[in-house]
Amino acid sequence: MKILVVGSGGREHALAWKLRQSIGVNRIFCAPGNAGTEQVGENVAIKATDIAALLAFAKQNRIGLTVIGPDDPLAAGVVDLFEAEGMPVFGPCKSAARLESSKIFAKEMMRRCHIPTALASSFERSSEALKFCQRLQFPLVIKADGLALGKGVVIAETSEQATAAIRSMMDEGKFGEAGRRIVVEEFLPGSECSLHALVSGGAFRMLATARDHKRANDGDTGPNTGGMGATSPADNWSDALQRDFDDTVMGPLLCGLSRAGITFRGLLFPGLMLTTDGNRVLEFNCRFGDPETQAILPRLRSDLLELLFATLEGRLDMIPIEWDRRPAVTVVMTSAGYPGTYERGKIITGLDACASLLDVQVFHAGTKRENGGVVTAGGRVLAITALGETVAQAREGAYEVVSRIHFEGCHYRRDIALAAVRVNVAVQ
User: Fold this and answer.
1) Chain centre distance of CA 409
2) Backbone angles phi, psi at 180, to 5 degrees
3) Based on the domain organization, do 200 and 259 belong to the same domain?
4) Three-state SS for 385?
5) How far is CA 62 from the centre of its chain?
6) In this structure, what CATH number is given to the domain that contains residue 161?
7) Between 423 and 317, the higher pLDDT residue
8) Angle, nearest 10°, between helix axes 126-133 and 159-166?
9) Residue 32, preceding bond cis, omega within 30 degrees?
10) Which among 318, 340, 369 is the end of a domain?
11) What is the residue-averaged pLDDT of the chain?
12) What pLDDT digit, counting tens, does each position of 164-178 carry?
């Protein structure tokens, strides 16, 4: 079977790498891919947002399954387009993907379904948003309504920071149409947890948990990013929390979507804040997380392709999901300046020396081949994942590889999974 993976980040490299191990897969294409995906497949010069060209390629090459990585093509209706032409595709339809493409829609759905989340209000005018902020306690959270490459969330510690964020989004067009409407919500103290669920209508199966590190700098300081690292399993999760999540989040959400005439079929990735008052949903994502996927998939022993088809065909309850009990730690290496402005084209060295290391995977994100070598081509450049008998060993393995790879301006956090090391994680 031929597989097409859409996207160019570390998540897509991890998906392509794992699907290449599936029985029956003899060829993988990545559109547009990166310098890492070409190690496991063939890159195709089609942008992830050019959904018409993706469909034409899939039909011409008789692709057996197209797997959508990023959020933009889902929001644009790539799944609806493929399904209308009878082409197998993994991901939710456009109406279901609104859970991610519109923060306002997601908040309204959570209110209707009584799903625990932060108190919030939405705004279409900056003046009204600014007045609302004056009545709140700081810190507070400001979110662009639409998709903003993981950068549309600002934690404002002061009134001045809130004003700057609101004006940049709504008046100055920092995120284009995505920031014309915003959500202002209360700040929830606690610890975050990332959950991934394969969803087929009213049925779902959970994948391994993960914990993301979103702030750019050590100690959870600096601006929010798309993710600076992850560990799986999450050290702050339990069976009791899982039961509560099933009852208060997944069950009500899927029932609410059904009542609205929306069938979700694909991967649902709720981001949670674990507070002293219980689980609170921060956001819904409608695709595999990044960098969580890079931590989760190396632990998956089951055939990923079989799981994806079981989701599409409504057979989730018939498929066992097996996991490597060893924990995984992922450290993201970024360009200097990320998540703000950064330079591209920096030569990356040390990759070849890490290619054959046991229980380590170097997933490429913002990379490309140039003049026979590999150079930086984005903000998040590489995601280094290591497995270990303990979180401490996995962490040590990941940072050992990080120390061997170099490019000008390289930045990474040095405290990824450190909290998990300090507690005795019971690996599930």
Assistant:
1) 24
2) -70, -30
3) yes
4) strand
5) 28
6) 3.30.1490.20
7) 317
8) 160
9) yes
10) 318
11) 94
12) 999 999 999 999 988
Residue type at 409 in one-letter notation: G
Number of helices (H), then strands (E), belonging to the chain: the values are 15, 23
Inter-residue contact 76 to 94 (CB < 8 Å): yes
**Owning domain of residue 307:** 191-318
* C-alpha 132, offset from chain centre: 30
Q: Token pair of 148, please?
A: 């903003």
Q: C-alpha distances in angstroms, 275 versus 81, 168, 218?
A: 40, 30, 22
Does residue 425 register a pLDDT over 50? no
Among the three residues 186, 207, 236, which one is the final residue of a domain in this structure? 186
Return d(Cα 193, Cα 103) in angstroms, integer. Answer: 19
**Helical (H) or strand (E) element with 234:** none
Structure tokens at 164: 């700057």
Structure tokens at 281: 């949903």
pLDDT per residue as tens digits for the range 89-118: 999 999 999 999 999 999 999 999 999 999
| Pair of tokens at residue 356 | 């054959």
Whether 428 maps to a domain, the answer reads no
Residue 427 — very low, low, confident or very high, per pLDDT cuts 50/70/90?
A: very low
Lowest mean per-residue pLDDT among 47-56, 131-140, 383-392: 131-140
Distance in angstroms (rounded) separating the CA atoms of residues 115 and 168: 30
CATH of the domain at 45: 3.40.50.20
> Structural domain tally of the chain?
4
Q: What is the CATH number of the domain that holds 341?
A: 3.90.600.10
Backbone angles phi, psi at 90, to 5 degrees: -105, 120
